[in-house]
C-alpha cells in the first residue's frame, strides 16, 4: 500500500505539470494571436480575394499554428511563421478553386457576353475596384504577397523580409516588379476607358 501512496503523488505531479505547461502554451499563443490574428485574415484575403474563403483559411491556419506552436523555436518569429502558414494554405485553396472552376467550366455551356460598359458606368459602379482586384490577382503569388505586406499593410521591407524568410534585396526587387506590373495593368485599363 505504501507503493501506491508513493506512485499516486508522482502521477498527480506529472499530470499537473503537463496541464500547467499546456496552459502556459495556450496563454502564450493567445497573446501572440491577439497581435497577429487580423494579419492572418488580411494575408488570406490578399491571396484569395474572397471574404468567406479568407476567413476559412485564416481559421484553419490558426488551428494549425496552435497545434504546432510547440515546434516554433524562436517565439519572436511567430508573425512571419504564421504569415507563411496562412500564405501556403491560401495558395492551396486558390489552386484547388482554380482546378474546380476549370472542371465546372468544361461542363457548362459558354455564356453570352454583354456589351462593355461605358466609362461613366464603370465609374458609377465602382468597377475600378474590381479591375484592381483582378489585376492584383493576375500577379504571381510571390509578388502579390510582398505588395500586400509592404505597400498595402505598411510593413517595412525589413519586417516583410523577416516574415517571409527572404533577404531584404529580394523583397525590394519583388516589390518593384510587383508595382511595375500592377501599374502596367492599370494603365491599360485607364487607356481603354478614355478611348470609349
Account of the 3D structure:
82% of the residues lie in helices and 0% in strands. With 196 residues, it is mainly alpha-helical. The radius of gyration is 24 Å and the shape is elongated. The N and C termini lie far apart (94 Å).
Number of helices: 8
Number of strands: 0
Task: Report the major sheet.
Answer: none
Order of helices and strands: HHHHHHHH
Q: What integer is the average pLDDT?
A: 79
What would CATH call the class of the largest domain? Mainly Alpha
Tell me the structural class: mainly alpha
- In one word, what is the shape? elongated
Structure at a glance:
The chain is mainly alpha-helical. It has eight helices and no strands.
Top keywords for this entry?
single chain; 196 residues; mainly alpha; Rna Polymerase Sigma Factor, Chain: A; Arc Repressor Mutant, subunit A; 8 helices; 0% strand
Topology:
Blueprint: H1 2-48, H2 51-67, H3 78-107, H4 119-125, H5 127-138, H6 141-152, H7 157-164, H8 168-195
Amino acid at each position: 500500500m505504501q507503493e501506491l501512496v508513493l506512485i499516486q503523488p508522482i502521477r498527480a505531479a506529472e499530470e499537473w505539470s503537463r496541464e500547467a505547461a499546456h496552459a502556459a502554451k495556450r496563454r502564450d499563443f493567445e497573446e501572440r494571436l491577439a497581435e497577429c490574428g487580423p494579419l492572418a485574415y488580411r494575408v488570406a484575403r490578399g491571396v484569395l480575394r474572397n471574404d468567406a474563403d479568407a476567413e476559412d483559411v485564416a481559421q484553419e491556419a490558426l488551428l494549425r499554428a496552435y497545434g504546432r506552436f510547440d515546434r516554433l523555436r524562436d517565439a519572436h518569429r511567430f508573425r512571419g511563421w504564421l504569415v507563411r502558414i496562412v500564405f501556403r494554405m491560401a495558395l492551396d485553396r486558390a489552386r484547388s478553386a482554380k482546378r474546380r472552376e476549370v472542371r465546372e467550366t468544361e461542363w457548362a455551356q459558354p455564356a453570352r457576353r454583354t456589351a462593355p460598359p461605358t466609362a461613366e458606368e464603370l465609374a458609377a459602379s465602382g468597377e475600378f475596384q474590381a479591375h484592381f482586384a483582378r489585376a492584383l490577382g493576375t500577379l504571381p503569388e510571390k509578388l502579390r504577397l510582398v505588395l500586400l505586406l509592404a505597400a498595402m499593410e505598411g510593413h517595412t521591407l525589413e519586417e516583410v523580409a523577416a516574415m517571409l524568410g527572404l533577404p531584404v534585396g529580394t523583397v525590394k526587387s519583388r516589390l518593384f516588379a510587383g508595382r511595375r506590373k500592377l501599374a502596367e495593368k492599370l494603365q491599360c485599363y485607364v487607356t481603354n476607358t478614355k478611348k470609349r
